[in-house]
Structures are given as C-alpha cells and as structure tokens.
Protein 1
Amino acid sequence: MENKFRFYNTMTREVETVIPHEDGKIGMYTCGPTVYHFAHIGNLRSYIMEDVLEKGLRYVGYDVKRVMNITDVGHLSSDADTGEDKMLKGAKREHKTVMEVAQYYTDAFFEDCRKLNIKRPDVVEPATNCIAEFIHMIEVLLEKGYAYQAGGNVYFDTSKLEDYFVFSSAVEKEQLQVGVRDDVEEDVNKRNKNDFVLWFTKSKFEDQALKWESPWGVGYPGWHIECSCIGIKNLGEYMDIHCGGVDNIFPHHTNEIAQSESFLGHPWCHYWFHVNHLNDQTGKMSKSKGDFLTVSLLEEKGYDPVAYRMFCLQSHYRKPLVFSYENLNNVELAYEKLVKKIAALKDEGEVDSKAFAEYKEIFTDAICNDLNTSMAITVVYDVVKADMNDKTKLELLSDFDQVLSLNLTTAGKKLLEESGSVDTELEQYIKDKIAERAAAKKAKDFAKADAIREELLSKGIAIKDTREGVIWERV
Ligand code: AMP
Ligand code: ZN
C-alpha cells in the first residue's frame, strides 16, 4: 500500500514513513491504565493523541488492530520495582478488594474515554487474564539464560544483552549504567543495577491480595512482562507500533523490548510513539500527587469534555503541554463558536468534488506529517470560511471528524437547542467576562480587571485565581 503517513519514531529518533510488517495492516499496542485510581487528564492526553494516531492510520486506509492492557497487578509505585503496590494502595484507601477496585476504575476509565470520543481498542486485556502466558514467557527466558532466580524472585539479567538501553544516546547510556546508588531500597538480589523482576514470590507485601501458583512458588508477575505477553498474544511476533507516554520509555518500554526480543529471538516492534506530558503549574501531573484533575471535575465545572480534546489537539503531541483553566476557557469559547457556525450550514445541494479533494488532501497531509493536529484544525477553520457551497463544507467536516472526533457537525445543533436556557447564557457571559478580565490584566489595566470582578460579584458570581487559572462559583 502506497502512503505517506509519517511520525516520529523514538527508537530511531527520526520522523519515518510507516511501513508495516504486513502490507496494509497495522498491529498497534497501547500501554493501558493502572486501575487503582481515576485517570487524570494528563493520562488522557496520551490516550487522546494515540486515538488520533489510530484514526489517522485508518483514515489513510490501514486495517488497524489495536490492543491495550489493563494493569490490575504488579505495578509498584516506582517503575523500577520499588515502593508500594499501587493496586493494594487503592484497595486499602477504599476498603475494597483489589478486584473491586480494578473493576471500578476500569469502568471509570472507559467512561472517560467515551466522553472524550476515544475509541475503545479492538482488544482490551487485563493482566490478571494472562498469568499462564506470563509464566510461559518467564520459563523460556530462564531456559535461554536471560533470567535468574535469586532470593525467591525471578529477575531479567540485563547484562546478557548487547544493548539494553535501546532508546538512549551514547552519553545517556553511560549515565544510566553508572546510575545514582542512593536508592535505600536497592534490591540486593539483583546481579546488575538495571535487572528487573519478572516474578515476585518474596513480596514485601505480606498482605498481597492477588497470588498465583508458579514453578517458582506462589507469587505475582512484575509489571513489564504483561505488555510483552499481551502484545505477542494478540498481535503475533511482529508488532508495528507501540505507544505510551514519555515516562514509559525508561524503564517500562526498555524492559518490554529486552523481554520480548530475548523470548522471540528477533526484533519485535519497529515504531515507538510517545506522547509528551501534560503539566500543571507545579510540574508533571501525576496520580500519586493525590490532587489531580479528572474529566468528571472538568464536567462539574461546566466544561464539555470534547473541549478538552480540542485543547489537546491544538498542541503537538511531542511537546509538553501546560494545563490552565484560562487556556481551556479560550479553547471552549472558540470551539462553541466554531460548531455553532457549522450548525448554520445548509445541508443542501451537491458536493463540489474538486474542492472536496483539494481540502481533503491538505487535511491528510497535516495528519500524515507527524500528526500535525493543530494544522488539521486550521484546515477545519479554512473549510468553514472557504468559498464553496455548504454541502461540500459539511461533507468535508464530517470526513475530517473521523480523525478529530470533535463532534464538528453535531455539537453546534445541540448548543443552539440549549441556548434558550438561562444557564447556558449566563455561563457564556461569565466566560466572556473572565476572558475580558484576563486581557485587562495582561494589559496591566488592573482597575478594569477589578471592576469586572466586582461586576460578576454583583451578579452572585465569585471568581478565584488558582494555580491552574481562573475558576468561578455562585455565592
Ligand atoms: P498509568 O495509569 O500511570 O499506567 O499511565 C497511563 C498512561 O498515561 C501511560 O501511557 C503514561 O505514560 C501516561 N501518562 C502519565 N502521566 C502523564 C502526564 N502527566 N501526561 C501525559 N501522559 C501521562
Ligand atoms: Zn506497557
């Protein structure tokens, strides 16, 4: 299949044209959530951009099979086998069993995905479904001499590989090898600093809830083994694209490659797609910080989750993105204006096939050019204001929405239907005032900014400046 789909491959550090193992087909794997808590909107940034990648590949004609694991066992609070067991932590916090916690947060994750128009992967596999496969892979790794038993656990021996740090430059490799040995929890059973656990029997967690029989005693799997096994089980010996957030590059994806290639005896996955982090004003958003932003919280504050999707699409996936309510407000205002304009288009007449092809090509080029989603959104605006009939515009917009999933041709109608309601009008008015106040502050016109705050207060609306931007509440 001829195509020009290109994206940045972390492995080769280059933007490469996709050439799958089997012509026309793509096997794509995504590291799924660790289901001990709600996903935060940073996690969901990764899933939104991976969704656009999948839909972009389908858009240019690939037959994509997408697989995702659900981490419901084995993930410790440090990605390098130290700290608390995340699932156990969730169960203790909520006085539930680990499996109840896993089910609850798996459902919550897919509900968030639904609200953000993220397609459910073709295969979703919880780690606890695949214990037999993990045991088999570990047995093979032991047989082949890539693994060893020590102190009751089974470890992967990274010294057996010529190049363990596959994603790193020469300088980074040196730093990683030397390492900083200030980790008080350093595991004395490890032969090499970067060795990692394949199977735990000597658990630090006496009350570890989930345990299975294995040739090495009753225990549970390490975190990394699940993605190698679930990937190979569902996509075969060759995977085309593996995705995750940038924090997964080391050690998680590095360890996945070590295990999979040692097990298979040949290269495993060619393209590695990593999404940069969403940060708040204090740094990387993370679940362990406790206080994090969720889709439900955005909804409680009156945002349409799809506006958050648009917020993500307006930045490039390889750049860090800072979240603020101010920016989200601006994006939502722009989004509402856009979809209302689209709702006013008349679904009549004939499609102008020449104009359709011309704009489709520009849009396709943007998506194929390392997922340039902000350019793709510019093309949406260009179509709306272009000199062509409404029917052609509508056809183009619904065609683009196969990739963008912004409800471009349906959201405006809904908004217009609702706009009779006082609440929506009031919300719009408040959002306008907040934007006006931000502009006044930027221009150092503090008197005007204060006047706007007072004006809102006189209408029973208090605004508050927070780390993430301005929020409002009724008083
Ligand atoms: P977890 O549920 O912690 O296993 O993470 C799920 C996914 O979210 C992984 O692909 C992570 O790499 C990704 N991730 C974690 N934190 C962030 C963040 N702040 N911004 C974007 N992606 C993230
Ligand atoms: Zn993974």
Note: The first helix runs from residue 41 to 59.
Protein 2
Amino acid sequence: MSTLFTKIINGEIPGTIVYEDDHVVAFKDIVPFAPVHIIIVTRSEISGIAALPETGDHIYLLNAAKKIAEQQGVTNGYRLVINQGEDGGQTVEHLHVHLLGGRPLAWPPG
Ligand code: AMP
C-alpha cells in the first residue's frame, strides 16, 4: 500500500507541489507551523532515517532544500527538520524534511 506522501506525489490526493525532480518532491504542509512550511519527500518509499539505505533518493534532499529555500525567498534563514520515530514526533513513515522559515524560530525545540 502506498504512503500518504506517495499518494500526493501521484496526484491521488491533493497537495500543493512547489518543486519536483527525479528524486524528490516538495509540497506545502497541510498544517503549517511557519509562514513557509514545505515537506520535501523522497520519491522512493524510505520509511525514515532509521531505515536509510547507503544510497538512493535521500542523498538529493539537501540540495533540493537549498533550491526550494531560494525559490521560497526565505533569505533571512530557515530550519530543516527530520523527525524519526515516536519520540522524534514522526507521524508519516516516508522519509521527509520539513523546511520551515518566514519567521524567527525558537531554539531548542520542544
Ligand atoms: P512528521 O510528523 O515529521 O512525520 O511530518 C508529517 C507532516 O505531514 C506533518 O507536518 C503534517 O502536517 C503533514 N501532512 C500530513 N498530511 C498532509 C497532507 N495531506 N498534505 C500535506 N502535508 C500533510
């Protein structure tokens, strides 16, 4: 069965896609925590950091994040977050990076 994010990638459920290439797809988070909150997801269904293969689509995530940050105009800074597992707050088991920006972000996170 496909993950929620694969269904967005395939257009089976709606999503506002802002970037895509051969390896990753990015869309707006449905519950944004910041003026810019983008989910950048691997096309392949890697369940998370704990299941990371040696190589694959995930190696393109950071370069995509840089491009998307430029595209979104978050010139004053931004944060990239990957949640892993229950304690990490992961709710969708399909590897993704949150790109957050557009306001000052508190540190440390809760
Ligand atoms: P995480 O908790 O790190 O696994 O992140 C999952 C993210 O996916 C959350 O920030 C959700 O708001 C977001 N999300 C869940 N469903 C959708 C959806 N249909 N479209 C866009 N983002 C979603």
Note: The chain has three helices and five strands.
